[in-house]
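cron nightly-structures :: item 1 of 1
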Amino acid sequence: MDQTTTTNFSDIFKSSFLEKTSSFSIVDSLIGIVVAFAVGLFIYVIYKKTFSGVMYSHSFNISLIVMTMATALIIMGISTNIVLSLGMVGALSIVRFRTPIKDPMDLIFIFWSVASGILCGAGLIPLVIIGAILIGLVLLFFVNRLTIDNPYLLVVKYTNAEVEKPLEHMISMQSKKHSIKSKSVVPGNGLEMTYEIRLKDNNTDFVQQIMSMEGVTSAIMLSYDGNFTA
């Protein structure tokens, strides 16, 4: 009778929390989190060096570090408990990233951070380090070393169709390649022609020469990223 009572009391005060705590290695967890922080910091530096947009977001860059560490923590947690993994999947399914991603490269860095966090949480430390170094070198080479000849849009408004031939000749003399993107007739305002051009030496002074042509009312040069909506 006494032995049964003792067993019941030991079962009551038995802590499942302590059992779960002893089921994972604190040292391995710390190593994974530290490596995730180091890789996230590496991603932070690469993003800052390769950013080529207009407005640099420091908060977004910091979020890449936190995202790497948080993903590693999630993977560490769900890898030791199947029930927890199912609950975590259900909880994360309601999370929505509502910040608009305007640059496709930002999406690449987000995916890189998440992938690195998953590898750190799974304990694949050599793989995440090798992958981070290779991806960083590729980004540094292709973004900073290789120069891309970005096209421009030239929008010319004119009142006389006879301007088109000398305008075409002048554009062909100043550009390596050009093509007509659109031509429209504006009632009461004449005609409007839109060219996609690639300059020979990035010299845009010829726009003033176009403005001086008889019949031309306006000439506008715009930076162009390759997407066009007529």
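cron nightly-structures :: done
Residues 59 and 143 are 22 Å apart (CA to CA).
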